[in-house]
Amino acid sequence: MARVLSGVQPSGQLTLGNYIGALQNFVKLQHEHECFFMVVDLHAVTVPQEPEKLLEQTKAVAALFIASGIDPERAPVYLQSHVPAHAELGWLMTTLSYMGELERMTQFKEKSAGKESVGAGLFVYPALMAADILLYNADLVPVGDDQKQHLELTRDLAQRFNARYGDTFKLPEPYMPKVGARIMSLDDASKKMSKSNPNPSSYISMLDTPDVIRKKISRATTDSGREVRYDPANKPEISNLLSIYTHCSGMPIPEIEALYEGKGYGDFKKDLAEHVINTLAPIQQRYTEIRESGELESILRMGAERASAIASETLRTVKQKMGFMV
Questions:
Q1: CA distances from 195 to 16, 39, 69, 180 (A)
Q2: Burial 155-174 (b: 16+ CB within 10 A, else e)
Q3: pLDDT for 180 beyond 80
Q4: Considering 28, 53, 109, 111, which one is annotated as catalytic?
Q5: Annotation marks residue 215 as catalytic
Q6: Which of 75, 148, 150, 271 is most solvent-facing, going by the fewest CB within 10 Å?
Q7: Can you tell me the distance from the alpha carbon of 220 to that of 269, in angstroms, rounded to the nearest whole number?
Q8: Higher pLDDT, 106 or 177
Q9: Catalytic residue selected from 59, 192, 216, 235
């Protein structure tokens, strides 16, 4: 059984795009592979965070993992900061990294663009991401297009370590689902739906109320004309909404197109909003139960214990091979 490792930053509200593109696939993967899912809170502080907001978002992301269908008995859910081996191996991976390869990271370029000074954590965090993966000798890592470069660096660092110190790490492979991997912004279909977008109307939060969802979808950007047709090249905005519709309703796109033939965008958007609301309603209900019951803390503690058992053994092996007294 292949081992899968993935994590989500608690740097904003999880969106419908996160659910369709990541969490739905996490739920499927847990039945097919040995899975570990973490909230990567150490990565979140590569940029300044308000402590109260970071704490709340960390709890929210973990609870949404479980509310979406991840079974913590089957697949550990835990916080990155609760497994100290992440930070320690992250430092060791930093010592194997070269300035040039870290400078080439696209996300570093984007997040540092136009700033007079940039924190060192933002620069070296790909080494910590490599440690996250290598600690568990993961076979598969679910990634979007924006993270493939970081996985390539992880493979490079694993190969570099193996060449210097002997065969130790597996080379992880990317897992990219064929559908649902990329839901775009509601106000600009050329950009990915992102929880870090300063415009809250650009995304649907997994915890948005029905009225908020209806309002956001009614205001979503559409293409010229009235035809509901999937054509990403010529009708990117409607195509994005169709992608959301098919994932939330289970209806194939040709069937949706036929349903709205001659009806225009108004009816389409109204129905789309209800499908989104119906998709998120049971998740929101379960989320509330988890937060109110107090069970989250024990779930995260159990997850950290199971993850630490593997991570600590890997770290011990790495330190021995590097010449540390263990």
A1: 10, 15, 21, 17
A2: bbbbeebeeebeebbbebee
A3: no
A4: 111
A5: no
A6: 148
A7: 9
A8: 106
A9: 192
Active site annotation includes 53: no
Tell which residue, 15, 52, 61, 9, has the closest CA to residue 200: 15
One of 59, 195, 216, 269 is an active-site residue; which one? 195
pLDDT, tens digit (0-9, with 9 covering 90-100), for 246-296 = 999 999 999 999 999 988 899 999 999 999 999 999 999 999 999 999 999
Query: Could you report the per-residue pLDDT of 90-121, keeping only the tens digit for each?
Result: 999 999 999 999 988 877 777 777 777 788 88
Cα(41)–Cα(291) distance, integer angstroms: 19
Residue 118 has which token pair?
Answer: 């940039």
Local structure of 38: helix, strand or coil? strand
Backbone angles phi, psi at 140, to 5 degrees: -130, 140
Whether the Cβ atoms of residue 199 and residue 193 lie closer than 8 Å to each other: no
CA 254 – CA 283 distance, rounded (Å): 28
Q: What is the DSSP track for 106-131? A: HHHHHHHTT-S---HHHHHHHHHHHH
Nearest to 241 by CA among 18, 22, 12, 16: 16
- Whether residue 195 lies in the annotated active site: yes
Q: Are 220 and 187 in contact (CB under 8 A)?
A: yes
**Contact at 8 Å (CB) between 217 and 273?**
yes
Q: What confidence tens digit (pLDDT) does each residue in 198-238 have?
A: 888 999 999 999 999 999 999 999 988 889 999 999 999 99
